[in-house]
Amino acid sequence: MFKVISNEMVVPNIHLLTVEAPAVAAQIEPGQFVILRSEEDGERIPLSIADWDRDKGTLTFAIVNVGGTTDKLASLRAGTDIPTVVGPLGNATEIGEFGTVVCIGGCYGIGSIYPIARALKEKNNRVITIIEARSSYLLFWEDKYKQVSDKFVTITRDGSRGVRGHITHLPEILGGLPEPANRIIVNGCTFLMKHTSEISRPFGIKTIVSLNPIMIDGTGMCGVCRVSIASKTKFACVDGPDFDGHEVDWAELLQRRKTYIREEAIPLRTSKCEEHAANRRGNIV
Amino acid sequence: MSEPVKRKIDYNRREMPKQLPQVRSHNFYEVALGYPPETAIEEAQRCLQCKKAGCVEKCPVEINIPGFVRCIAEGDFAKGIKILKEKNCLPAVCGRVCPQEEQCESACIMLKKGGQSAIGRLERFLADWEAAQGKLELPEIPKPTGKKVAVVGGGPAGLTVAGDLIKLGHKVTIFEALHKLGGVLIYGIPEFRLPKAIVYREVEYLRMLGVEVVTDFVVGKTRSVENLLREFDAIFIGAGAGLPWFMNIPGENLNGVYSANEYLTRMNLMKGFMFPQYQTPIKEHAKVAVVGGGNVAMDCARTALRLGAETRIIYRRSRQELPARLEEVENAEEEGVIFDFLTLPIRYIGDENGWVKEIEYLKMQLGEPDASGRRSPVPIEGSETILPVDAVVCAIGNSPNPLIPTSTKGLQIGKKGNIVADEATGKTSMEKVWAGGDVVTGAATVILAMGAGRKAARSMHEFLCSG
Ligand SMILES: Cc1cc2nc3c(=O)[nH]c(=O)nc-3n(C[C@H](O)[C@H](O)[C@H](O)COP(=O)(O)OP(=O)(O)OC[C@H]3O[C@@H](n4cnc5c(N)ncnc54)[C@H](O)[C@@H]3O)c2cc1C
């Protein structure tokens, strides 16, 4: 059993859940994920790590409540126990001395891109962080980001804070940098990652995405998380979750994620960014 | 009872009652119902009590078969189960899923006239009898040796090692990646062949003996083998063969194409067949094709059938070459699974939403025997055929999961990703580390995994006592 230390709704519908899991906390690295169950006989769902405290032995997740298991996790109170917290799973995000790195987070990715930005900063990279949401009231951890970023940008669809629009503004942001970016890392909904990869391709900037297909065991046993990378089948749980965004078969991933409409494994259906970006693209053409 | 009187050999192998095919094909209850005591006694009395018992030699864990059978014949079930459990810590499981026809029963001298002793059914009878008594007899545990053993993986191999070593006074902790122990017994083999309550019972028995269980713990991720070695005096790796193979043909990533592991895990571990009581989402499929011919394929097909789909097995060789147990093939046939022999899928075709809607396959004919000794299938030119389906389950095999091999320096790994271990002792290339079961052999059987566990436990015990 794993104890819930705190659980707060940080912005509407996004919950910061902190649980005690010392063995996992001792090992976890940026970009890895953990599988949780909210109750006995509950479903197993993968969640990206948003932060941790090795001394206290705790893990923090940013959970978008889309019903089902995420709803149960969202309503857990401090002091209760949950049956499964297993990890750290997947490979850590590569943290090198890249030079200038653009970190992009949306939805739950506003949580999970944080430890990546922090680790990159510790490696003396120039870190440009972009977080995006529908509206300013859905942005969080801005102060945390400012501490680890050389430049911090927010994008809101309604323009209520920072740049108005979507990640389609990335070229302007890149253009405004004094030096070219060496790498882009995106965490968030599939559509944000797909879109960013499409935009960055002509710039020839390596773009790392953290894929979030349906998963069950998270150890390579079930194979439901298959993704096509450069036309080869990979298991996101053990070969990923990070891949080169320019090599991902996005259409296949989006289609596979729809297999179980009821499946709550991937907490990202409420951001409406898919529709928004589709409209945006319509405008551009 | 006095010495059995000399009598004519009874070749009438007693049938075990089963649910009728037309009934069982709509439910998930166990297919075979077990002997009533009278039948068990009759069956046991047929045993010739050979002095040099071939059955024992053929048993990977060397159960004293004539011994426990004789107890049944004499009506002393309590003594029978004791004898059985001396060598087998999972009798209710083995009585159900062991390929007895290739092992103990194949050595029975009554086999010639088709009357081989029904050893598996008798084993099952005793285990079920004990469970029905409601009280388990726990063996005496010697005083603690002070040695600590870590067992990685809670499948049959790991459970056997745990059971053997705890009974020798060592402290045993099992680390299991999933949230339940049992390995394939829990997530793979379906309820109608092996009720999960039986597996829980066997696991509970180990807990009562004092085995410590840590679930949700992935060795190689949560902690490495090397890290565990700082705390434990010896480690056994029984991580199974959990990495599913695909055929690498076009369309395999369409929606509705599953690995057998995924399909069975959803159903068994996550109780999908009890949807909507349990939340695991299960698609309602109308036409399911299962690719493969082993036990796993039979289990998938019979599961799909029970969920109401028209179900077929697609197998590239003929009925004779099916690797599944004959009993399971017959069960599947009786229940109405369609068998398409000599067919090889070459492509899956999707609809506009990315769901599989058709299989394209080639018809095959049998050619020369291949390395496995079976006649190899050769495609017939121009025989491409389209078959409409709405789900495909790929059950063509598994190999060991690379998590431990890749995270453990110094562990010798074989060509197929298996851990290399000595056959007689289970010793690996790493000091203080043993391995056994599917992770060493590749996908095999429950009893072989248990046999490997037994040998490793023996060697580990020697090591622990010497140091
Ligand atoms: C559907 C199906 C039907 C079968 N039918 C039969 C049958 O009728 N008769 C028969 O004899 N055999 C059958 N088999 C084969 C048999 O089940 C296996 O040979 C046997 O279970 C192998 O035992 P094992 O202990 O080696 O591995 P497993 O049973 O695979 O157990 C391994 C365990 O280790 C865990 N694990 C893996 N990696 C880690 C890690 N890194 N850290 C911690 N834990 C880990 C896994 O989660 C699993 O619980 C069947 C197999 C399947 C899939």
Note down, in words, how this protein is organized:
The complex is a heterodimer of chains A (285) and B (467). Chain A has 285 residues and is an alpha/beta fold. In chain A, the strands form 4 sheets. In chain A, strands 12-11-10-9-13-14-17 form a 7-stranded mixed β-sheet, sandwiched between helices. In chain A, strands 5-6-2-1-7 form a 5-stranded antiparallel β-sheet. A 3-stranded antiparallel β-sheet of chain A has the order 4-3-8. Chain A has 2 domains: 2-90 and 264-280, Translation factors (Elongation Factor Tu (Ef-tu), domain 3), CATH 2.40.30.10; 100-256, Nucleotide-binding domain of ferredoxin-NADP reductase (FNR) module (Rossmann fold), CATH 3.40.50. Chain A is globular, with a radius of gyration of 18 Å. Chain A contains 9 helices and 17 strands. In chain B, the strands form 4 sheets. Chain B has a 5-stranded parallel β-sheet with strand order 3-2-1-4-16. Chain B has a 5-stranded parallel β-sheet with strand order 6-14-7-8-9. In chain B, helix 5 (77-87) crosses helix 7, helix 8 packs parallel to helix 17 (446-466) and helix 13 runs parallel beside helix 14. Chain B is globular. The mean pLDDT of chain B is 91. The chains are: A alpha/beta (285), B alpha/beta (467). The A-B interface holds A 23-24, 27, 35, 37, 41-44, 68-69, 83-89, 216-217, 219-224, 226-228, 233, 238, 251-252, 255-256, 258-260, 262-263 and B 177-179, 187, 215-218, 221-223, 242-244, 246, 248, 252-253, 255-256, 258-259, 261-262, 265-266, 270-271, 278-281, 283, 353-354, 401-403. Flavin-adenine dinucleotide (FAD) is lined by residues 97-99, 152-158, 175-178, 183-184, 188-189, 218-220, 238-240, 242, 264, 295-296, 299, 401, 403-404, 437-439, 443-447, 449 of chain B. Flavin-adenine dinucleotide is lined by residues 97-99, 152-158, 175-178, 183-184, 188-189, 218-220, 238-240, 242, 264, 295-296, 299, 401, 403-404, 437-439, 443-447, 449 of chain B.
